[in-house]
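thread from #wetlab-drylab

HS: before we spend reagent money on co-crystallization trials with iron/sulfur cluster, can we at least see a predicted complex? here's what I'd submit
DV: go for it
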Amino acid sequence: MPATPMTPDPSLTEAERARILAKAALFAPPPATLPDGRRDLVGLSREDLAAEMAAIGEKPFRAKQLWHWIYHQGVTDFARMSSIAKPLQARLAERFVVGRPEVAAVQTSADETRKWLFRFRDGQQVETVYIPDPEEDRGAVCISTQVGCTLSCRFCHTGTQRLVRNLSAAEIVGQFMAARDAYGEWPSPKDERPRLLSTIVVMGMGEPLYNYENVARALRIVMDHEGIGLSRRRITLSTSGVVPMMDRCGRELGVNLAVSLHAVTDELRDEIVPLNRKYPIAELLAACRRYPGASNARRITFEYVMLRGVNDSEAEARELVRLIRGIPAKVNLIPFNPWPGSPYRTSTPEAVRRFAEIVNEAGYASPIRRPRGRDILAACGQLRTESERGRRKPAAA
Ligand code: SAH
Ligand code: SF4
């Protein structure tokens, strides 16, 4: 069975559906087949994997076996899949690969944050970051969902790179798998040591809810308990506020939601998060109020980038609290991370402290996100790759 096509939410109008489908086609990832005709098995759903096995005359249990080797053991070489007989290993290797993005570059920050530049088969590249938690023995992998971004938030480096294309499910889950390769975390560590790479934040390059189908397919693979097995509580998806897709994300995936709010008036948000012109603050907050599973145990995270003299006054802190009243939430304050040519400055520590205090006194946790990996441009909003749409040289004849 071929992978399902992009299917917009049935509640959308015809015109909206048509627009989404046209856009999806324009920015579609490359096919999962290599130039030599072999197909990448990574990124297929369980059903699609079973269909691939059926197509070569194998029983459904083969798909289960392969799933285990690919997503539990992290094995990429069919010859190492010891529960599969040698002749079948060879047949599989003729037709399929278990792919990984290529590591084009890797940098490790003084604070241990690690950033990879991953290159995909068509030459496009994204960045992925591992952020160790200094208080715990583990950390989060921040993954990208698009090459570039259609949105152009004023403070975001990715926003200066126009959208080249969406990532496929394989490319999204592949970033996490390649990060696990690098830390030797396949399968689970044999000793009692907990896994370092135990959390995923979908907060890298791109707007995940503008590539929902591929993101959903990737996250379903990540959450499958016979494979990577991360629970939905260990996954946080950040959106700049694509309201119609937030409902679907909650209903179908139920992962933690982070919302990039950054301003308390439509006037300012229109300017710094231009998507606000389409989905203004009131609509965005209404979608947060109805997000399934939002409770005190599973709070929505509001992200608020602190821009000096732009959105960091005490009055704005009070207005923020008023706006989100009644939503089980925490407010993550992110001191602005500068990038070359960025038009803002970071709020003063005193302004950040006062803002946090006001939010906190109103009963909302207001952690200040410590900038991580700034020295290697790996902090929030600093990711950007050089690849530009249409820039690639044609392949040699
Ligand atoms: N597109 C999604 C997820 C990627 S951005 C979104 O916008 O939510 C992840 C987070 O980094 C967002 O909250 C974003 O607003 C924030 N961010 C972007 N640029 C930043 C910068 N220069 N400094 C600090 N945070 C930034
Ligand atoms: Fe895109 Fe998010 Fe950056 Fe805005 S903040 S430009 S939505 S990646």
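DV: Residues 102-388 form a domain with the TIM Barrel fold (CATH 3.20.20.70).
HS: ok that's useful, forwarding to the group
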